[in-house]
Amino acid sequence: MSTPIHAPPQTLAILKALHSQSLLQESSLPPLPPRCTPAFNEIMSDKFIALEQDKACFVYNLLRSMNAKNVIEAGTSFGVSTIYLALAVSQNVERSGGSGNGSGRVVATENEPGKAEKARENWSLAIGGEGEGEGVEGVIDLRVGDLLETLKGDLGVVDFLLLDIWTPLALPTLKLVQPSLRSGAVIIADNTVSSYEDYTALREYVENPENGFRRMLLPFKGGLDMIIYEPRA
């Protein structure tokens, strides 16, 4: 039976386990204080907050169809969605006849060092190709710290940006990356319905025709915005 993504059984099993852990953790969360407050950040500092499996599979297949090879993930957490991104990028590189190293890259960002370390552990278990020992880590450039600092340079020409971060950072991150976006680049923003009011600034920015974007809402739980960058010539 076919699966939504192309990956070795070991990697599929790891992803299934990680998604299960994330859902279990999410279901047991206590009532949360307002987002981005110190109390909220403390509670969430060791939580998955992983992109849902159906969304992650969609993003993987989108990247495969785009032949995306230079991807940025704003908000890595425990690195679950990063595995999908790295699988797609490494497979695109292989399809194009590239060697892998230096031919494709996922720039992953995480502010919490503890989460970054856990992400590295998860990546070390995931195999990207059919060959033994071919891990996904080879295409991942993990940048730990404030992403508004870590994304200031060395981005190359960006094919895809995943915005899976606290909503106040969404628009500043997009503006920071925008000069590096190629024409036709895709931006995906998560939970744009469940956090509708918090995304007002981002929505107004991308809906302004002067800024070169087109936006559509995809029918996933919580909302998923697909934004295309097509700057005027």
Structure description:
- This protein is an alpha/beta fold and 233 residues long.
- The chain has one domain: 3-Layer(aba) Sandwich (Rossmann fold), CATH 3.40.50.
- Helix content is 38%, strand content 19%.
- The chain contains 8 helices and 7 strands.
- It has helices at 9-27, 38-44, 53-66, 80-95, 113-125, 147-150, 170-177, 200-207; strands at 70-74, 105-110, 140-144, 158-163, 181-190, 213-218, 224-229.
- It has a 7-stranded mixed β-sheet, with helices on both faces.
- Strand 4, helix 7 (170-177) and strand 5 form a beta-alpha-beta unit.
- Helix 3 packs parallel to helix 4 (80-95).
- The longest helix is centred in the N-terminal third of the chain and has 19 residues, at 9-27.
- It is globular and about 45 Å long.
Topology:
Blueprint: H1 9-27, H2 38-44, H3 53-66, E1 70-74, H4 80-95, E2 105-110, H5 113-125, E3 140-144, H6 147-150, E4 158-163, H7 170-177, E5 181-190, H8 200-207, E6 213-218, E7 224-229
Helix pairs in contact: 3-4
Which blocks of ≥5 consecutive residues have pLDDT under 50? none
Give the number of domains. Answer: 1
What gross morphology would you assign?
A: globular
Identify the strand order in the major beta sheet.
3-2-1-4-5-7-6
What is the subunit arrangement here?
single chain
Q: In what range is the share of β-strand residues?
A: 15-25%
**By CATH's scheme, which homologous superfamily applies?**
Vaccinia Virus protein VP39
Structural class: alpha/beta
Radius of gyration: 17 Å
Count of discrete alpha- or pi-helical segments spanning 4 or more residues: 8
Which CATH top level class fits? Alpha Beta
Q: What is the ordering of alpha helices and beta strands?
A: HHHEHEHEHEHEHEE
Helix content: 25-40%
Number of strands: 7
Distance between the termini: 46 Å
Calculate the mean pLDDT score and round it: 87
CATH topology: Rossmann fold
- CATH architecture term: 3-Layer(aba) Sandwich
